[in-house]
Automatic annotation (TrEMBL):
Organism ancestry: Bacteria, Pseudomonadati, Verrucomicrobiota, Pedosphaerae, Pedosphaerales
Cofactor dependence: Mn(2+); Fe(2+); Zn(2+)
Name of protein: Ferric uptake regulator, Fur family
Cofactor note (record): Binds 1 Mn(2+) or Fe(2+) ion per subunit.
Binding site for Fe cation: 98, 136
The family this protein is said to belong to: Belongs to the Fur family.
Organism: Pedosphaera parvula (strain Ellin514)
Binding-site list for Zn(2+): 104, 107, 144, 147
Record's compositionally biased regions (Basic and acidic residues): 1-19
CDD domains reported in the protein's UniProt record: Fur_like (cd07153)
Keywords of the record: DNA-binding, Iron, Metal-binding, Repressor, Transcription, Transcription regulation, Zinc
Amino acid sequence: MKCHSHEHGRAELPELTDKLRRKSRKITGPRQAILQILRQHPHPMSNKEIFAELKGDCDLATVYRSLHLLESMHMVKRFDLGDGIARFELLAEGDDGHHHHLVCSRCAAVVEIDDCFTRELEERIAAKSGFKAITHRLEFFGICPQCQ
């Protein structure tokens, strides 16, 4: 496991805005600000956390719409960490965002888990159940060392 960090492979803001341009999307102030906030934070963030960081530069509905657009463009990935709150994380170019998290049930600290289940396990589950195109999403929960 490693502490969740985007330093490795983190795109610069001009690269991110170029990606928006390539997909014929406007580089609005809120979109640029949201990308910058997600670049700077080492953990998935909720709409409201992003909105708070914007300090009134746009309304909450704009944050929701912008994140929906960025998600549809595969620039951010949505995570559900078990509390019903969608959180978003910036994706590096070519990253499908598939990884797992260990989440503290008390303070919501997030640690990224490097290990993942193998394709063979998914195929075995598919063979037993008759399902096709199996994928998985898995998050672990516990109490972090600071909260113990």
